[in-house]
Amino acid sequence: MTVITRFAPSPTGFLHIGGGRTALFNWLYAKRHGGKMLLRIEDTDRERSTEAAIQAILDGLTWLGLDWDGDVVYQFSRAARHKEVAESLLASGRAYYCYASQQELEEMRESARREGRPMRYDGRWRDRDPSEAPEGVKPVIRLKAPTEGETVVEDEVQGRVVWQNKDLDDLVLLRSDGTPTYMLAVVVDDHDMNVTHIIRGDDHLTNGARQTQIYQALGWDVPKMAHIPLIHGPDGAKLSKRHGALGVEAYRSLGYLPEALRNYLVRLGWSHGDQEIFSTQEMIDAFDLGSIGRSPARFDFAKLENLNGHYMRQSDDEHLVNALEGLLPELDKDEHHLGGTLTPGLRQKLLVAMPGLKERAKTLVELLDSAYYLYAKRPLHLDEKAASLLADGRARLDGIIAKLEAVSDWTGPNVEAVVREHAEAIGAKLGQVAQPLRAALTGRATSPGLFDVMAVLGRDETLSRLRDQLKDAPAA
Q: What is the rounded CA–CA span in Å between residue 166 and residue 436?
């Protein structure tokens, strides 16, 4: 048997972080077993489904590195097939026309509310002859669900889950306008796509029972099911926007690397001993459904940041520069003064500076921010802390420009030797000279190593910036 999983999002918004994890689990399981992961867009809600949302889902999956097999299946385009299956159930006596009016359904709802029980359709048209139908009412088609016994889902994560059939009502398969319901469409599509394993959030667990009843009524094999706990916030409440329930593309804009987010998501609810860091191949080799916990996973931004920092330090410098360049169009152009691209000169400077830059940063946005000194326009605007450091230490920099001008071979060690010599000559500690020097050259109180900064900036730019900041008065 070829393992076939599917990811089936509704295109009513971005690819949610929980959806990203569900897609990842489906992808890993298929890869682990040499199978396929299919992608189905469940766009039957025509009012809420949008092209922009579909594109966001496709872009989010691609950025995460999760490819799918074959063409994307669009559920709405299969409506005729869904209707045909509903009518086949009608013909076999496993479904029936229901003519209950909206008013009757509202009365059932009200009665359930009064009695403090869930709303269930009372089956009033289950065994009635359609000849008794009121005139002018378009019927729905309902499943003739079993009323005795139980429906069982042998779940790969939740274990054996049992529902008493008396507690499950006859669900609608086809609406009065001839359109299929979600329950029917999902079953027909999964069957026609030969899906063997349904891996999804545990908010679908009851749907698993209802869909099992539809499979059984059709005489089709029921796929294996695995319902994974949802992601919660650090406080244990259901994940919301304030916790970081953003779209996958928002994490991209925040400067996370896809490989770091992938590694973080795989560890949300799944474990493999104490291992925290996984290459993609290690994830594929180790992933199994039995190691998914039954409790909700808690989202932790600090942990994601630390993991991202690890991946950045391990990344090839060229890879990080390319990732930065891909991020530029999404960042505030006014803040970074970069437009949407890197000039060849700046790209080269970033490459040279990257070993020092990536040691400190936890996101690409932080990385770009700490590289400010490379692309800042002269004269540099000093932030408050840097301005204070320079004001306090300006006198200690007297004469340093002339000494640096005498350096012919401009390297980190050579400029370091001059700065150390200058500090000794004036009876100061190295830091007392280095701090105001850093402020003058970068506009910030912190930066990568000062002598690396000077080496990357080069002789002309370093001296020009010092002249800007250390001249007695602005030019007329």
A: 78
DSSP-derived secondary structure for 123-135: -TTSSS-GGGPPT
Please say if the pLDDT value at position 473 is more than 50.
no
pLDDT per residue over 213-245, tens digit each? 999 999 999 999 999 999 988 888 777 655 555
pTM: 0.90
Q: Given a cut of 70, is residue 475 above it in pLDDT?
A: no
The one-character DSSP state at 353 is: H
Domains of the chain: 78-228 (3.40.50.620), 243-375 (1.10.1160.10), 384-470 (1.10.10.350)
Segment 66-82 mean pLDDT: 97
> In whole angstroms, what is the distance from residue 317 CA to residue 352 CA?
9
241 is in an annotated binding site: yes
How would DSSP label each residue in 104-149?
HHHHHHHHHHHHTS------TTSSS-GGGPPTTPPPEEEE----SS
Catalytic-labelled residue, pool 83, 241, 377, 471:
241
Residue 88 above 70 pLDDT?
Answer: yes
In whole angstroms, what is the distance from residue 435 CA to residue 419 CA? 11
Going by C-alpha positions, the residue among 421, 385, 430, 377 that lies closest to residue 403 is 421
Residue whose C-alpha is closest to residue 294's, from 159, 152, 153? 159
**Which residues fall within 8 angstroms of residue 58, CB to CB, at 6 or more apart?**
72
Rg, the chain, Cα only:
31
List Cβ neighbours of 358 (8 Å cut-off, separation of 6 or more).
312, 313, 315, 317, 320, 367
Euclidean distance between CA atoms 358 and 310, whole angstroms: 9
241 in active site: yes
Residues 260, 65: Cα–Cα separation, whole Å = 11
Q: Nearest to residue 141, comparing CAs of 180, 106, 167?
A: 180
